[in-house]
Amino acid sequence: METDTITAISTPIGEGAIAIVRLTGPEAIEITSKLFEGKNLIKVESHTINYGKIIDPETKEVAEEVMVSVMRGPKTFTREDVVEINCHGGMVAVNRVLEIILNHGARLAEPGEFTKRAFLNGRIDLSQAEAVMDLIRAKTDKAMSVALKQMDGRLSSLIQKYRQDLLETVAHVEVNIDYPEYDDVEEMSHEMMSQKTKEVHDEIEELLQVAKQGKILREGLATAIIGRPNVGKSSLMNTLVQENKAIVTEVPGTTRDVIEEYVNVRGVPLRLVDTAGIRETEDIVEKIGVERSRKVLKESDLILFVLNYNEALSEEDKKLFEAIKGLEYIVIVNKTDLPQQLDLEQVKQFSDDRPIVTTSLIEEEGVDELESAIAKTFFAGDIDTGDLTYVSNVRHIQLLKQAKQALEDAMSSLEMEMPLDIVQIDVTRTWEFLGEIIGDTASDSLIDQLFSQFCLGK
Ligand code: GDP
Ligand code: ZN
C-alpha cells in the first residue's frame, strides 16, 4: 500500500507551551533533514533527540530552535518512521514550522490519521483505534465549535456561499447538458462556468489576502531594515525598540544568528530583523544581484530603506531601489543634522510614490513622522482590524490555497475549451476543499448534494 508522509501539531497548544509537530511516513526523516540545521538526521541513531534549528530553505530564515526526536519504524506508534519536532516558541513558532514542513513534501494529517495509521499497520486494534478516534473527534469538534463561535461564523458563512455558488453552477451545467433546449447550450454553460469560477477565485484570493493580514497581526509585520553600511540601520532599530514597548523579548544568551525584535508601533506589530539579517542586506545586492535580492526582500511585509542625507545617492542605493521596486517600503533619509549632500528630488524620482521621511536619529528627530508613515502604510485601504484574524488557522489557509489552485486549473481548462465534465472535476475538488474548512466531510459528496438540493438524475 502506498503511504505518504503526514504531519500535524500533536500537542494542545497555548502561548509559551512546548508544542510538538509530528511527522509520520516514509519520508518523515528525509523531509525534516532538509529543513534542519544540526546533525544529519538521516545518519543519527533511532530514538535519539537532536538539537538544532528549523530553517526555511527558500529564505534561509531560522524559524525556530528545536529538539528533534528521530524514531525509525517499526518500533513507533505508527510503525512508520516518526519525527517529533519540539518547539518552545508557542503558537506562532509551531505554526511557522508546520507551514515550512507542509511546503516541503508532507501533507497535513486529518484528525485521527496518525491513529488510523497505527491501526492499519497493525500497531493497535480497532477498539483501541476507535477509543482514540472518539477522543480526538470530541476534541476537534469542540475546538471547531469554539473556533466557529470565535469568528462569528463569518468565515464559514463565506465558505458556505462559495460552495453554494459552485454547486448551483454545476447543477445548471448538468441541467443544460441533460436537457438541451438550445443549440448554444454548451457555449452558455462555458460562459457561466468561466464567470462563476473567476468570481469565486477572486473572492478566495481576497480572503487569502486578509489571512495574510491576520497572520501579520499575530506574528508581526516582517520588517527588513536595509541600506548601505553606516547609514543608521542599527540606530533606527534601537530607536524603534526604545520608543516602543517590545512585544516579545527573546531568550537571552541564545546562539541565534538572527535576532528579532517585536515592537508595537501605533498598533502595528513589527518584527524587526537585525544583525546577520542586516549585515546580509547591507551588501545583498552586491552579493547576489538585483533579481535574487528582490526575491529575498519580497518575503518582508515592510522594508525600511535608509539613506544618508550627508552623502549623494550612490550606485548601490540605486540598485537597492531597483530591488525593492513595487514592494511595500518607506524611504528614510537619515542624518539630517549633517550637511546636505543628497538630492531629495532625485530620491523622489527613484522612490515612485512611496513615503519619504527625513530623520536625525542622533537628535531623535523625525521619529514621530516615521511612525505615522509606518501606521499609515499598514492601515491604508481601511483595513478593519476586527476582521483580520478570522482566517488565521494554518489548516484553513492551506485549504484555501488548494481551493484556489483547483479553480485555477478549472479556469485554464475552460480557456482551452475543454469539455465541461472535465472542468467540473476541478470545480468539485474546489467544493471539497472548501468543505473541509467548515468540517463538511467527504461523505456528503457533491453528487449527494445535487440530488438532495436539485433533484437531478431522476
Ligand atoms: P548601520 O551600519 O547602517 O547600522 O549604521 P549605524 O546605526 O551603526 O550608524 C552608523 C553611525 O552613524 C554611528 O556612529 C551612528 O551613531 C551614526 N548615526 C546614526 N544616525 C545618525 C544621525 O542621525 N546623525 C548623525 N550625525 N549620525 C548618525
Ligand atoms: Zn548596523
Automatic annotation (TrEMBL):
Xref: InterPro entries: G_TrmE, GTP-bd, GTP-bd_TrmE_N, GTPase_MnmE, MnmE_dom2, MnmE_helical, P-loop_NTPase, Small_GTP-bd
Intracellular or extracellular location(s): Cytoplasm
Annotated Gene3D superfamilies: P-loop containing nucleotide triphosphate hydrolases, Probable tRNA modification gtpase trme, domain 1, tRNA modification GTPase MnmE domain 2
Signal peptide positions (record): none
Top EC class, one word: hydrolase
Domain TrmE-type G, first and last residues per copy: 220-379
UniProt cofactor(s): K(+)
Keywords for this protein: Cytoplasm, GTP-binding, Hydrolase, Magnesium, Metal-binding, Nucleotide-binding, Potassium, tRNA processing
Enzyme Commission number, as recorded: 3.6.-.-
Binding site for K(+): 230, 249, 251, 254
Top-rank taxon: Bacteria
Binding sites annotated in the UniProt record for Mg(2+): 234, 255
Binding, (6S)-5-formyl-5,6,7,8-tetrahydrofolate: 22, 84, 123, 458
List of residues binding GTP: 230-235, 249-255, 274-277
Co-factor: note: Binds 1 potassium ion per subunit.
Pfam family, one: TrmE_N
Sequence similarity: Belongs to the TRAFAC class TrmE-Era-EngA-EngB-Septin-like GTPase superfamily. TrmE GTPase family.
Subunit relationships: Homodimer. Heterotetramer of two MnmE and two MnmG subunits.
Function field: Exhibits a very high intrinsic GTPase hydrolysis rate. Involved in the addition of a carboxymethylaminomethyl (cmnm) group at the wobble position (U34) of certain tRNAs, forming tRNA-cmnm(5)s(2)U34.
PANTHER family (UniProt xref): TRNA MODIFICATION GTPASE GTPBP3 (PTHR42714), TRNA MODIFICATION GTPASE GTPBP3, MITOCHONDRIAL (PTHR42714:SF2)
Protein's name according to its UniProt entry: tRNA modification GTPase MnmE
Organism: Ornithinibacillus salinisoli
Lineage: Bacteria, Bacillati, Bacillota, Bacilli, Bacillales
